[in-house]
Design a protein that fits this description.
Elements lengths: L7 E2 L4 H6 L5 E6 L6 H12 L3 E7 L1 H7 L10 H9 L6 E5 L5 H7 L3 E5 L8 H8 L3 E5 L7 H10 L2
Parallel strand pairs: 1-4, 2-3, 2-5, 3-4, 5-6
Helix pairs in contact: 5-6
The chain binds adenosine-5'-triphosphate and the ligand O=P(O)(O)O[C@@H]1O[C@H]([C@H](O)CO)[C@@H](O)[C@H](O)[C@@H]1O.
Enzyme class: transferase
EC number: 2.7.7.70
GO molecular function, one term: ATP binding
């Protein structure tokens, strides 16, 4: 097993694994189907908000329910998690099968919840929850105009 795979974490062990991380802990969530520059910049900025970064990743079934397209995700959960775990900015990677990461936030109780600037913190369940228990919710501005959907469209153009 590659060393970075030690960052992969089950839901059952999440609270204990978080207890062992340097504080403050930042948590974010998402699909991360084809990783791009926007993602890695955003994750590095999220990590800089604290001392550790936990990434909760949508299962393949929960991605399907998000309506990004019948062919999504292109990369399986196991592959998306492994790629994220290999990043220097990332401390732990966990999956979630619910429609939102609210339950993960309730189990993990991060000091800081971060999401890309396409979300309004006070409008999403994860942001509301962190604010309610006295944590911080931070929307990080987009540094690069990139998206997995755009990349897929570009690839299809030449297919
Ligand atoms: N270009 C970007 N800059 C900064 N943050 C981003 C960027 N793209 C996505 N993010 C953030 O990364 C997280 C995961 O995003 P997501 O997987 O939805 O990326 P995406 O490329 O927009 O995907 P898709 O095109 O499939 O919707 C979200 O919190 C999102 O806000
Ligand atoms: O990668 P995405 O599409 O930005 O990730 C989604 O974020 C949603 C957000 O946290 C608002 O609740 C979440 O609900 C969804 O399950 C995806 O993780």
């Amino acid at each position: 097993m590659a060393t970075f795979e030690q960052k992969l974490c089950t839901r059952a062990t999440l609270p204990q694994r978080i207890a062992d991380l340097p504080k403050p802990v930042v948590l974010t969530n998402g699909v991360f189907d084809i990783l791009h520059r926007g993602h890695v910049t955003y994750l590095a900025q999220a990590r800089e908000l604290g001392a550790s970064l936990v990434v909760a990743v949508n299962t393949d079934a929960s991605v399907k329910r998000l309506g990004k397209g019948d062919d999504r995700p292109l990369n399986t959960l196991a592959d998306r998690m492994a790629v994220l775990a290999a990043l220097e900015s990332v401390s732990l990677v966990v999956e979630f099968d619910e429609d939102t990461a609210l339950e993960v936030v309730q189990e993990a109780r991060p000091d800081i919840y971060a999401k890309g600037g396409d979300y309004v913190m006070s409008a999403i369940p994860e942001g509301k929850e962190v604010i309610a228990y006295g944590g911080k919710a931070v929307a990080i501005d987009f540094a690069h105009d990139r998206s997995t959907t755009k990349l897929v469209a570009k690839i299809r153009q030449f297919g």
